[in-house]
Amino acid sequence: MTIDGEEWAQRAVTGAASAKAYRCPGCDHEIPPGTPHMVVWPNGSMDHRRHWHTPCWSRRRAGARPYRAPY
């Protein structure tokens, strides 16, 4: 998939496969352990993978910029 001219790979993570907390770059909130979410990285650069809430990644794919809550 191409976003802003860059190719991205993505993988869905089930809640059962998620054992630690991550910080979503789309909203800057925590993804708690056990929460289904997406892992996304630029093609060829798995060292730069990030964990996103599924709705945050869907908005990003649709062209929206990441949302940072004011709190």
Top keywords for this entry?
mainly beta, two-stranded antiparallel sheet, 32% strand
Description:
Helices cover 11% and strands 32% of the residues. It has 71 residues and is mostly beta strands. The protein has one domain (2-61). The protein has a 4-stranded antiparallel sheet with strand order 1-2-5-6. The model has no long low-confidence stretch (mean pLDDT 88). This is ATP/GTP-binding protein. It comes from Frankia nepalensis.
Count of runs of 4 or more consecutive helical residues: 1
Element order: H for helix, E for strand: EEEEEEH
Helix content: 10-25%
> How would a crystallographer describe the biggest sheet?
4 strands, antiparallel
The overall pLDDT average reads: 88
Radius of gyration from CA coordinates: 12 Å
User: Which word captures the global form?
Assistant: globular
Q: Report the count of strand segments.
A: 6
Please identify the oligomeric state: single chain
Q: Span between N and C termini?
A: 32 Å
Strand order, sheet with most strands: 1-2-5-6
Summed up, the domain count is: 1
Uncertain parts? none
Helix/strand class = mainly beta
- Share of residues in strands: 25-35%
Ordered list of secondary-structure elements with their pairings:
Blueprint: E1 2-3, E2 6-13, E3 22-23, E4 30-31, E5 37-42, E6 50-52, H1 54-61
Compose a concise summary of this entry.
This protein is mainly β and 71 residues long. The chain contains 1 helix and 6 strands. It is globular, with a radius of gyration of 12 Å.
